[in-house]
Specification:
Helix content: under 10%
Number of helices: 0
Shape: globular
Distance between the termini: 47 Å
Number of domains: 2
Number of strands: 34
Length: 398
Amino acid sequence: MLVRSLPFTLPVVALCILSLGVGTRPESGKLWIEARDGSLASRSLEGFELEAPELAQTVSVRVEGCSEPAPPGEAALRASVALVGGDRLVAAVRGGDGDRLELELAGGAQLALDVGELLALEFRREGTAAFAAPARGDRLYWVRPAGFDTLDGTLEGFSAEGVKFDGVLGSRTFPWAEVAALFVEPLEDPRPLPERAVLLDLADGGRISGGLVRWDSGGLALALDAQRTLVFPSGAVRELTAGDGRVAFLSALEPALVREGWEEGGDLGLRWPWQRDRSVTGSPLSAGGRVWARGLGVHAPSRLEFELDGTWKSLRGAVAIDDSVRLLAYRGSVEFSIFLDGASEPAWRSGRVRGGEAPIALPALALEGKRRLALVVDMDERSFVADRADWLRMLLVR
């Protein structure tokens, strides 16, 4: 049986998605740099340099106009990989060796993960149902001719052939092609992040945190720990955000109160549950012709309330009706409002917002001393038809 250890016991794994040696061609594109005071500056990626000390006055850096690298590996072995601590990756599984899982990321980079870092593998297959982790222990979903069998037990290791798992069938190796999902009971605390921590939202939907080493026209170097550094081409990055406690995405918090639809008995049974970092349909947030990595997807009427601790200085973000309504005959019409500390009048109101319109940016909304924040979306025209509302990139700033 394998021994699950902290990732610091791994040998050095240096990863490069692009070669950064002599002759590397700089990527073209534009970066939008948001300062702590809310100001935005545009920079060309060519000749751009950002090192860790400069992050002190930077809230985020958004990438625009870069070509995305090729997706990792064959679709049949491509997986969503959830890590301890909240990070997640899109990767192709290339096998493993004992307590190490070998992955290929976008652009061909190789990453070895210790099993102590892993929470779940879910392979991206057509028509795959939702999988669930067990309350205790490990779980493997085994592909069978008529669907999936659920096997609870103990993960024993990885190999090039598959996953060695001890369950009701005894200890055996399940070929990778027969693994639909794998859930691992966490046995270790999340790895401590290096100083100057940042959060990366990746263009393929992945998310990873670490310490910024540098970002220049050759790529972004991110230290995962003392032993491992990833280098991403800028096209693989959607946005970098400070992760040192100065900012927080509202979508990362749990709402204290949720009200959706009409009062009981008046909604004809219609409900559209809110979504975290997705539109209410479950698809990526899309507005103004681009995909947004962070935000809240709801359907009018909706009210989400969040408890604050009084230390946040401002709220930033944007609102829109999701671009998915462009495929519908009617595109929806709503009004967004923000209420603070139970006030009867909103601190901000959008006015009428229709589907297909450009996102509306919030003014920097003062939050100092505030302890309750309510995001409200009301129907405007034609009842509730196509009222797929997006709270986009709602960012709390200290």
